[in-house]
Design a protein that fits this description.
The complex is a heterodimer of chains A (210) and B (277). Helices cover 74% and strands 0% of the residues of chain A. With 210 residues, chain A is mainly alpha-helical. A seven-stranded antiparallel beta sheet of chain B has the order 1-2-3-4-7-6-5, sandwiched between helices. With 277 residues, chain B is α+β, with helices and mostly antiparallel strands. Classes of the chains: A mainly alpha (210), B alpha+beta (277).
């Protein structure tokens, strides 16, 4: 019964990946042992998810700001993803995996109390203060990768997260809303706020260096 | 639209996430309001600075192996029903209780080797981003691929759909301030599908669309500037191939998911019709 339900759901979703999976599933049910079925599942999982390991590692590394933790989180996230892989019917494997990486990272952050995630922060845009830096000055300093990295690392985790998803992964607002678990309408204002904060930090650093 | 609204929507406009109507209103406002236009320029500069300056932390090879072997372990344990195996499974799932459960089963000399590799990887990963920040080329490659993917996704492959070079070329010439060559390559197995206007690296460019069997090739063309590289290049990223060349007048970037060989053939066919000078 469960198999029938799953098959129907997958066909509803009308994407080729799920169809392929359902076909495999049916074959396995008929002919193979449980172990072989799991190996099949693993092969299908690896094919879908391993290509996104760079994205997973990059996000975890930015959220945790620590290489060892990032690697632990990626490993844990892949294990979690594999366990719930049967529930994945979409075609956007990267967004699905990044959601799990994000949640696993926050679990560790909370555990280490490295960040107070309960603090609600202001989504309003504050434009004061950062207009003094000209586009030319920012462009000039954008070559300084170390400065950009430092500035990003200084931001609260929610801002780092949204900047990485937008600028390093090039994800759409819809995908970002899904991964960061915020309403789609909030994505733009949060990005705006994150960029403003970054600009302010850069402006501060640039004028201090002068 | 007033300044306050424009400021509020500026990020959405910058990211191309607004509906066409609102985008047009902002565009109009930016043309009319010098202050907002400057703010928008600053914002664009910042967005580029982040994309270009922030390091992308690729997964080290050691992590790939570790993830794959932990997945293998998870499957192996699931198939067997022994108590010891279940215990091992539990330690895998609660990583916070016991880190790197894969290690104890490996002999110590392998452990030493693994430790050396991990150490080297950590050293390398902490130094590499500093030594090799993403170049403007990589940034351009990202834009090119994004544009290629978008053109296939949004049902907006061409602005002018025609296999006739004498239809596509005049159309492009009226839209751009340069006259891009539009050769007919159908006899070489690359029929022309059409042309499109695109916006890359802060200027308008011509995008020609050719077909290779079931695949599409986007050929981006713009007049060579001092910052464009003159040497030939081949880049592979995210399963896409990019081939770059330039002649006296124009810079070319071909982007597609066809094989490198096909893309090089395409370049050669193109250069036979449009000899470099």
């Amino acid at each position: 019964m469960a198999a029938t339900l799953e098959a129907e759901y997958a066909f509803d979703a009308e994407d080729l990946e799920s169809r392929a999976k359902v076909v495999k599933f049916a074959v396995i049910q008929g002919n193979e042992t449980e172990g072989a079925a799991q190996e099949h599942e693993l092969a299908s999982f690896e094919e879908t998810m391993l290509p996104h390991m760079d994205a997973a590692h990059n996000l975890a590394r930015w959220l945790l700001r620590n290489e060892e933790d990032a690697q632990d989180v990626v490993q844990e996230a892949y294990l979690r993803a594999f366990k719930s892989f049967s529930g994945f019917h979409g075609s956007n494997g990267r967004a699905w995996l990044l959601t799990i990486v994000r949640n696993t990272s926050y679990t560790l952050l909370k555990k280490n109390r490295a960040v107070d995630l309960t603090t609600t922060f202001d989504e309003e845009i504050h434009t004061a203060g950062h207009e003094s830096v000209s586009p030319a000055t920012i462009l000039e300093h954008s070559e300084n990768a170390e400065l950009i990295k430092e500035a990003m690392d200084e931001l609260p985790v929610q801002f780092r997260e949204i900047l990485v998803l937008r600028h390093l992964e090039g994800l759409s607002y819809k995908e970002i809303a899904d991964i960061a678990q915020i309403p789609p309408g909030t994505v733009m204002s949060r990005l705006s706020r994150a960029r403003a904060e970054l600009k302010e930090y850069l402006a501060g650093r640039i004028s201090k260096d002068k | 639209m007033n300044c306050e609204e424009a400021t509020k929507l500026m990020d959405g406009y910058l990211d191309g996430e607004l509906d066409p109507m609102t985008s047009q209103k902002i565009e109009q406002h930016l043309r009319d309001c010098r202050k907002c236009e400057q703010a928008y320029e600053a914002h664009t500069a910042l967005a580029h600075a982040i994309s270009r300056g922030a390091p992308y932390y690729k997964a080290p090879a050691e992590l790939r192996q570790r993830v794959q072997s932990s997945l293998r372990d998870a499957v192996g344990v699931g198939a067997s029903r022994s108590g010891a195996a279940r215990e091992n499974h539990a330690s895998l799932t609660s990583r916070w209780a016991k880190r790197r459960p894969v290690l104890p089963e490996i002999p110590w000399n392998w452990l030493a080797l693994a430790a050396a590799i991990i150490f080297a990887a950590i050293i390398a990963s902490s130094f590499l981003p500093r030594l090799r920040p993403p170049t403007s080329d990589q940034f351009l490659a990202t834009q090119l691929i994004a544009s290629h993917v978008r053109s296939l996704m949004a049902d907006h492959l061409t602005d002018v759909a025609s296999s006739d070079q004498h239809t596509v070329k005049p159309w492009l010439d009226t839209k751009l301030d340069f006259a891009a060559p539009v050769p007919d390559l159908s006899s070489q197995g690359f029929p022309l599908i059409g042309g499109r206007l695109d916006y890359l690296d802060n200027h308008s460019v011509a995008a020609l669309v050719y077909q290779r069997r079931k695949h599409f090739i986007n050929l981006f063309i713009w007049p060579t500037t001092s910052k464009d590289s003159k040497e030939q290049k081949m880049v592979e990223r995210e399963g896409y191939h990019l081939v770059h060349w330039a002649d006296g007048d124009f810079t070319y970037w071909a982007v597609s998911d066809v094989s490198v060989g096909d893309l090089q053939n395409f370049q050669q066919s193109f250069e036979q019709q449009v000899p470099p000078h």
